[in-house]
Amino acid sequence: MKYIYFFLPFLLVSCKTVTNTSKTTSEDKTEIAKPITISYKVNSEEVTSFLKELSSDEMEGRETGEAGMVKAADFLIDFLKANQIKPYFKTYQDTLSTFKMPAYNVVGFIEGTDPVLKKEFIILSAHYDHIGINKNTPNEDKINNGANDDASGVTAVAQMVKYFSQTKSNKRSVLVVFFAGEEKGLLGSKHLSEKLHQQNFNLYTQLNVEMIGIPMKRDFLAYLTGFELSNMAKKINEYSGKNTVGFLPKAGEFQLFKRSDNFPFFKEFNVPCQSISTFDFENFDYYHHVKDEFQLMDTTHMTNLIQEFLSVITLMTNSAKKEIKMNAK
To answer: What is d(CA 46, CA 68) in angstroms, rounded to the nearest whole number?
Structure first.
């Protein structure tokens, strides 16, 4: 997650849970969607091994422009190739024009199965970069592994697109994006959103995944940034048949909607582009810290979250009409 150091003195402030309600407007008269049963099972061992590899010391903290980022990108490209996920551009590498050092997003593509709906895209995304190595510190551990931020989100997206690759259950097309440059100021998402907008990319919605490695002690599984801007939360909960996402006051207070890779796409396309997260300022003490390591992650929780979202992303890609909409101002 993009730097929020100046908020850290407030991390111990408790968060009041707000009931997840959403008013129906004249712009949102779609029928209530019925949840579907997904027989596909997310493999918890694969979740664990993927997260462990991506957040290992060998990746050197995955800082954009450094060797560790290249190693992480190669790992992600190998994953896409192994799952027969094609590159969207000529290669998987989308080179950033806004960064002096070698830096690139990793972008894959799963074509939709419906001849009409496949012209519309859903973006599933997470950032794979982190903040690298503490070079000027006497501490023995110098590597910021970024297991929660955001190897956890990348792991979730990887398993989601693996599901689509194996089941061919997406009528709309899916763009899978692993962003670089998030920690440098959302450089990867700014670059790609502008590029796609210039190419008249037909974006329906974006679901970005940010820091989901630790569960929350709340009556919902994750929170959605920019909760009030669209009906995405309402539709997610309809699609899952559960209270899957809710409203976290701290997310608004700290403007998290503007601090992850959903925001540049929202600005360019003016469609619902939002992030899910379980980092609630109470459950994780090692934001941008060398102790953000694999050993602290709850991979059972992560597996359950990914599994619950399979019905959500399936119905997102398969609805006959665009059901997720911006709320009227």
So the answer is: 22
For residues 214 and 148, give the distance between their C-alpha atoms in angstroms, rounded to a whole number: 8
Q: What is the pLDDT of residues 17-29, one digit of tens each?
A: 333 434 444 444 5
Please, are residues 244 and 237 in contact by the beta-carbon 8 Å criterion?
Answer: yes
Integer Cα distance of 200 and 197 in angstroms: 5
pTM of the predicted model as reported, rounded to 2 decimal places: 0.91
- Here the tokens at position 239 are 């699609």
Bridge partners, 275 (sequence order)? 208
Tokens 């050993």 identify what position?
Answer: 295
How many CA atoms does the CB half-sphere of 50 hold within 13 Å?
27
What are the angstrom distances between the C-alpha of 8 and each of 1, 3, 169, 181, 284?
Answer: 13, 10, 42, 22, 12
Instruction: Report the distance separating Cα 229 and Cα 257, nearest Å.
Output: 10
Q: Report the distance separating Cα 154 and Cα 77, nearest Å.
A: 12
The domain over range 38-318 is classified in CATH as 3.50.50.60:
no
First CA to last CA across the chain, in angstroms?
Answer: 28
Q: Where are the domains of the chain?
A: 38-318
For residue 82, which phi and psi values (nearest 5 degrees)? -65, -25
Per-residue pLDDT, 215: 98
Residue range 136-162, pLDDT digits in tens:
877 789 999 999 999 999 999 999 999
